[in-house]
Write a structure and sequence with these properties.
Blueprint (H helix, E strand, L loop, with lengths): L9 H10 L10 H5 L6 E5 L4 E3 L7 E7 L2 E7 L2 E8 L4 E2 L13 E4 L4 E7 H10 L1 H28 L6 H8 L4
Antiparallel strand pairs: 1-8, 2-7, 3-6, 3-8, 4-5, 4-7
């Protein structure tokens, strides 16, 4: 019998159940996820509101509760659409790392959106105090990044080399 088992109220249970569906958090136990609850802030955004621009400091991780967010890249005087994200998607993942800036733009789509905002400083505090949580989150991030990289290579092959993939490797300085 556990004498000190933590009990969660309805709102906490709902947030924990929500995080079960977010790839970065899905391998964490309920108790491990609970450390993020005090820092998980709800923010409402209007249509076409900018969450962040490329080059901004990576000050928070975002998770979509409702609505859609477009991720795009500015090229010359235009924006190239990359992906439209919806419920349970996280973005701004480089806020899990120190001293990072945004590599793309994130803009709310046609309807209002509700996002959970998890500040970088809070993430780092949890990582400092709970290295097992840090390891699990960063492993999930590595798996997501591996999937992204595989998709880049697959898309490159399917597009018959529409850009110089070698340049990507050189810029990344992966040491292959």
């Amino acid at each position: 019998m556990l004498w000190f088992k933590r009990h969660y109220d309805k709102q906490e249970e709902d947030k924990l159940a929500f995080l079960d569906n977010v790839a970065l958090f899905d391998t964490l136990s309920k108790d491990e996820k609970s450390y993020f609850l005090p820092f998980l802030h709800t923010r409402q955004y209007a249509p076409n509101e900018v969450v962040f621009f490329r080059g901004d400091a990576s000050q928070a991780l975002y998770i979509i509760v409702e609505g859609e967010v477009e991720i795009n890249v500015d090229i010359r005087n235009d924006f190239e659409h990359i992906i439209k994200l919806s419920k349970y998607s996280s973005f701004g993942d480089n806020a899990l790392l120190n001293n990072q800036t945004r590599i793309f733009n994130a803009i709310i789509q046609e309807k209002n959106a509700i996002l959970y905002v998890l500040p970088h400083l809070s993430i780092q505090e949890i990582f400092k105090n709970y290295p097992v949580i840090k390891a699990k989150i960063l492993e999930n991030l590595a798996e997501l990044q591996d999937a992204y990289f595989r998709n880049i290579c697959d898309t490159y092959r399917e597009g018959n080399g529409f850009f110089e993939l070698r340049e990507l490797f050189l810029k990344m300085n992966l040491g292959f």
